[in-house]
Write a structure and sequence with these properties.
Number of helices: 8
Order of helices and strands: EHEHEHEHEHEEEEHHHEE
CATH class of the largest domain: Alpha Beta
Helix content: 25-40%
Strand content: 15-25%
CATH architecture of the largest domain: 3-Layer(aba) Sandwich
Radius of gyration: 19 Å
C-alpha cells in the first residue's frame, strides 16, 4: 500500500481505530497531510494493545468494531488512566448513543457520514486542549520550553523549532538524564511505518543541536555511545 506524502513537522501522534479500510485510509491521509503522525488499527482489542505500546495524543475511535466495541475501548482506556482526548465516530445517529459515548469517557462525537474538513477542525481543537494540558513551562538549566505555545528559549534567546523538533526536545526535557534509544524515539514520535533502522532520529538530533546548542562546545543534548541520546541534567561544569 502506498503511503501519503508527509510533512516533516508533526503536531499530534494519533491512533485511528476504524474497521472500514477506506475510511481509515482517508482519515489517515487527511491527518498526515496536516502534519500529524497517524497509525490505524481495525479491532478494539488491538487498539488497547497499541495504546499500551505508543504514547498517543489523540484517539479517533469508531463505535462498531470487531473484538471490542468503541464504548468498551473507551471505558477500558479511561480505566487504565489514558488521559488523551478521544473522538468517537459512529453511524449510530441516536442522541442516546452520543450520550453513551460521552458517558464512557469520550471528549467529542462525530456522526457518520462526516465532512473531512469538520474532522480536521475537531482534531485541531482537541489538539489545542492537549497542548494546554502539558503546561506549565519546563526548564532545565538555561533552557526553557512552554508546551502550550511551543516556545523555546535558551539564555534569553528565542529558538524557532519545527513541531517535530519541539516534540523531540520536549521528550528529552521532561526526562533529563534519561537515555532514549533510537527505536524508543521512533516509537514515541513517529508513526509505526517508520523502520527502527531509519536515520531520521540522527537527522533531527543534529538539527536540534545546531539550533539549541548554537555552537557551544559542551551541548545540552548528549550522545551516549551505543545507547542513544539524553539531555544533560545540569549544565556541564
Amino acid at each position: 500500500m502506498s503511503r501519503p506524502t508527509r510533512r516533516l513537522e508533526v503536531d499530534l501522534r494519533i491512533l485511528i481505530v476504524e474497521d472500514e479500510p477506506a475510511i481509515a485510509g482517508a482519515v489517515k491521509a487527511a491527518l498526515t497531510a496536516d502534519g500529524h503522525a497517524a497509525d490505524t488499527v481495525g479491532d478494539g482489542r488491538d487498539a488497547l494493545d497499541w495504546t499500551d505500546t505508543y504514547a498517543y495524543d489523540l484517539v479517533i475511535l469508531d463505535v462498531i468494531l470487531p473484538g471490542l466495541d468503541g464504548f468498551g475501548v473507551c471505558s477500558a482506556l479511561r480505566a487504565k488512566g489514558f488521559s488523551a482526548p478521544i473522538l468517537m465516530l459512529t453511524a449510530l445517529d441516536d442522541i442516546e448513543d452520543r450520550i453513551k459515548g460521552l458517558d464512557h469517557g469520550a471528549d467529542d462525537y462525530l456522526p457518520k457520514p462526516f465532512s473531512m474538513d469538520e474532522l480536521r477542525a475537531r482534531v485541531r481543537a482537541l489538539g489545542r486542549r492537549r497542548l494546554e494540558d502539558r503546561a506549565p513551562t519546563l526548564q532545565v538549566g538555561d533552557l526553557e520550553l512552554d508546551p502550550a505555545t511551543r516556545g523555546v528559549r535558551r539564555s534569553g534567546r528565542d529558538i524557532r523549532l519545527t513541531a517535530r523538533e519541539f516534540a523531540l526536545l520536549e521528550l528529552l526535557v521532561r526526562h533529563p538524564g534519561q537515555i532514549f534509544g533510537q527505536e524508543r524515539l521512533i516509537e514515541t514520535l513517529w508513526d509505526a511505518d517508520f523502520a527502527a533502522e531509519s536515520n531520521i532520529v540522527e537527522v533531527y538530533v543534529r538539527s536540534l543541536r545546531r539550533k539549541v546548542d548554537d555552537g557551544r562546545r559542551d551541548g545540552i543534548i548528549e550522545t551516549v555511545r551505543g545507547s542513544g541520546y539524553r539531555l544533560r541534567a545540569s549544565e556541564p561544569g
